[in-house]
Amino acid sequence: MSRPDGETQAEQVDRAQYGLAAVLALVGLYTIIDARGLNVGFGDPIGPRVFPYVIGSLMVVLAVLLAVATARGDLPQAEEGEDVDLTSPPDWLTVAKLVAILVLNLLLVNLLGWAVTGGLLFAGCAWALGSRTLLRDLVVGVVLAVGSWYFFYVGLGVPLAPGVLDGIL
Amino acid sequence: MDTLNLLLDGFASALTLENLMYASIGVLLGTFVGVLPGIGPAMALALLLPVTYGLDATQSLIMFAGLYYGGMYGGSTTSILLNTPGESASVMTAIEGNKMARKGRAAQALATAAVGSFIAGTIGTLLVAFFTPGIARWAVEIGAPSYFAIMLLAMVLVSSVLGASKLRGFIGLAIGLTIGLIGLDASTAQARLTGGLLELADGIDIVVVAVGVFAIGEALWTAAHLRRRPLDVIPVGQPFMGREDWGRSWAPWLRGTALGFPFGALPAGGAETPTFLSYITERRLARRHGRDDEFGEGAIEGVAGPEAANNASAAGMFVPLLALGLPVTATASILLAAMQKYGIVPGPTLMTDQPELIWTLLASLLIGNTLLLVINLPLAPMWAKLLRIPRPQLYAGILFFACLGAYSVGQSSFDLAVLLAFGGLGFAIRRFGIPVLPLILGVILGPLMEVKMREALDLSDGEVSGLFDEPLAIFVYVLVVLALVLPPVIARARRPAHPTHHKQEVP
To answer: Which parts of the sequence belong to the DUF112 domain (chain B) (predicted)?
Structure first.
């Protein structure tokens, strides 16, 4: 609850928040424009437009308010957690590695099958997060992936795509 | 007594061997995932949602009841044994609980949390069973205008009460409402906000939204700020309480329950407020008896009270969920999403449409709560070991199960792309301090709200007055206005007198 920020002087401005405000405003405008393309049928006094209009407008108003608040020195309180250390600057490299691995997984999962990409996903993420026991992570990942494949297949009756292991699993 | 019979019927169907097994699995899995650092009850439920796919509605709700209480209990273990609480509801438990653990009284802290949770959960669930039918009977009479107004009230309260910034609360809500718009319009079947993508026509699966925002977002956010020093975990033996501990705990348990339940039932943000109030109350009472020097140094009352309040509010949340179909916490939203998967229509008719299901759920909550005490207390040392799990593997595991869950929904890599997009959103809202609860509530309640709004306005032929033609609706709108206007006025009136009143209480 109490968040000891080193800088209590409200002089600094969180520039990224302007970016957020801009994105929100665009989303709001897009919502309104998208709703304009909808047809309102006969005997339907309200139609599908009103609700998006309200939400889109609300979004635009909030975006403006956020921009104003930012200019006045309003700072966000980033979320804390057990393993979160907000005193150090964000480690973008790790995040980029993780996102790359997640993208790779979604591109390959239908081709290679979950039992393969799942294992790589686990080992890759552990590596990106700083684990140096690659071999052990790979073993754990493969066990998790193959195990979850069988769990879904046998336990829940949901056959996940087998991919290249078709016929082996 | 009618309620008692219905509850006994619920027990009869919950107490089959098979269903007991599902309840036990739920409790164990829930605790397992809840104890893991970085995973709260809401994320635990979202991650475990796919596990229930193969089950029928009753069994999966039984399992969810176990998961829910298990996840709550797991969270308190984490906050006692680690020196940083994972979520706002356990902040108060962590203050005294961690101090107790440091003084070698971890066993007693865990025991008073577990027994307190059990007592609060049991009383709370019984209160739900006795209150909800009456409210539901009354709620069936509620017309579309009033129901619309009540949903609006819930959204406004959740967005403005929680968190430090109202503006960010409403931004979260607006983002959620926008996500809820995606898909085909319910009555005219026209695509909205799909950008021409056929995959989005059915709307976005709530599992993908929840897992993306909670799990992927959390994992990415933590990865960006991963603590390089390992946290010190306090070793723990078998939980137990001495005579004196029991004597000092029972009254805080009951007071915590009394505080927690009503707050849980209101759409005012779940457990944060009542745990805080409970802590303050116990501290004041101790001061009156001249014993408050122990507070801040590991007073057992400071664990017993807030922990009971936490669980009682967790039970109280079922009142609006079951009577009105209105979720008021993130966890309740996910429970509601799970129910929707089985074709259960949320809303005031839930209780009359699905009586068997609801009573079985309530009975399972009581059973799950008991199992929790019986199974988990002896297992505490084992759970504590989980806290030492190396972080790279932990977060790799979260990402693994998040992808598995999203992929299993429709077996399409498109869902994984959407998952990643919501992971990005989850990261952004953590970065910008936007609360997650209004967002999730917006996703779930938005579409429902639109249906009610159009129902109300169809009746009045499009006249705006259609939204106001019930006395109840007008009353609720007055509450909405008060909720928006009063807090700033009070804050302004108070500010000169107590400049830092609020902050002093939390060391």
So the answer is: 20-441
* CA pseudo-torsion sign B26, B32, B34, B39: negative
- The string of pLDDT tens digits covering residues B34-74 is 888 777 777 888 888 777 777 788 888 888 888 888 888 88
Percent of chain A residues topping a pLDDT of 90: 47
* Cα B448 to Cα A42, B185, B328, B454, distances in angstroms: 23, 12, 14, 10
Q: State the Cα–Cα distance between residues B214 and A31, nearest whole angstrom.
A: 25
Strand, helix or coil for residue B184: strand
- What is the mean predicted confidence (pLDDT) over B479-488? 84
Q: Which residue of B has its CA nearest to A41?
A: B188
Question: Who's near B397: CB < 8 A, 6+ residues apart?
Answer: A122, A144
Cβ pair A158:B417 closer than 8 A: no
Using alpha carbons, select from B237, B235, B236, B233 the residue that is nearest to residue B391: B233
Helices and strands in chain B, H and E counts: 23, 2
Whether chain A has a CB inside 8 Å of the CB on B168: the answer is yes
- Taking the C-alpha atoms of residue B64 and residue B67, their distance in angstroms, rounded to an integer, is 5
In a domain? residue B163? yes
Residue B456's beta-bridge partner residues?
Answer: none
Distance CA B422, CA B215 (A): 10
HEC-encoded secondary structure of B290-316 = CCHHHCCCCCCHHHHHHHHHHHHHHHH
Q: Are B396 and A98 contacting, i.e. CB atoms less than 8 angstroms apart?
A: no
pLDDT at B1 > cutoff 60: no
Which residues of A are less than 8 Å from B85 in CB distance?
Answer: 82
Q: Are B199 and B412 in contact (CB under 8 A)?
A: yes
* B185 near A CB under 8 A: yes
> Can you read off the two tokens belonging to residue B185?
């319009």
Question: What are the beta bridge partners of residue B184?
Answer: B191
Task: List the structure tokens of B393.
Answer: 């593997």
pLDDT at residue B268, as a whole number: 67
Nearest CA in chain A to B503: A2
- For every residue of B57-94, DSSP letters joined together read HHHHHHHHHHHHHHHHHHHHHHHHHSSS-SSGGGHHHH
Surface of A (95-124) touching B: CB under 8 A: 95, 98-99, 102-103, 105-107, 109-110, 114, 118, 121-124
- How far apart (Å, rounded) are the C-alpha atoms in residues B132 and B407? 37
Where is mean pLDDT largest: A65-69, B37-41, B210-214, B480-484? A65-69
Task: Quick: pLDDT tens for A90-108.
Answer: 889 999 999 999 999 999 9
Cα separation, A11 vs A14, whole angstroms: 10
How far A9 CA sits from the closest chain B CA (Å)?
17
Q: Which domain holds residue B155?
A: 3-227+236-491
Residue B146 CA: distances (Å) to CA of A88, B159, B263: 49, 20, 22
Residue B163's pLDDT is what? Answer: 66
Helix B144-161, helix B436-459: angle, nearest 10: 160
The contacts of residue B47 (CB under 8 Å, 6+ apart) are B33, B39, B211, B214, B215, B398, B401, B402, B405
Judge whether B497 lies within some domain: no
pLDDT band at A48 (very low <50, low <70, confident <90, very high): confident
**What band does A8 get if pLDDT is binned at 50, 70 and 90?**
very low
Predicted interface score ipTM higher than 0.85? yes
User: For chain A, what are the domain ranges?
Assistant: 15-72, 92-165
Region for A133 from its dihedrals, namely left if φ exceeds 0, alpha if ψ lies in -120 to 50, beta otherwise: beta
Chain B nearest C-alpha distance from A131 (Å): 6
| Domain total of chain B | 1
